[in-house]
Design a protein that fits this description.
By secondary structure, this protein is mainly alpha-helical. It contains 3 helices and no strands. It has one domain. 58% of the residues lie in helices and 0% in strands.
């Protein structure tokens, strides 16, 4: 399992990529179920961060597959 620091870096990287190259996906970032904690004071451990990263990664990959002719903005 990756460290919390590594996962936070990966999450920042993929989030930045989405915001810069695929801004049309930015609206979904705040709506992702993994970002809405059910607990009052949730603890963000590596397991939760890994699930969140995986959901971001899946969102991006699915979008790219469904829009193959869409080129990222440079």
């Amino acid at each position: 399992m990756q460290s919390v620091k590594d996962l936070n870096a990966k999450i920042l990287e993929i989030t930045t990529l989405i915001q810069e190259k695929y801004p049309e996906l930015s609206k979904y970032l705040s709506e992702m179920p993994d970002t809405i904690p059910v607990e009052k004071n949730p603890e963000m451990d590596s397991e939760h961060l890994q699930k969140y990263y995986n959901s971001l990664d899946q969102l991006l990959k699915k979008y790219i597959l469904e829009h193959p002719k869409k080129k990222p903005l440079l």
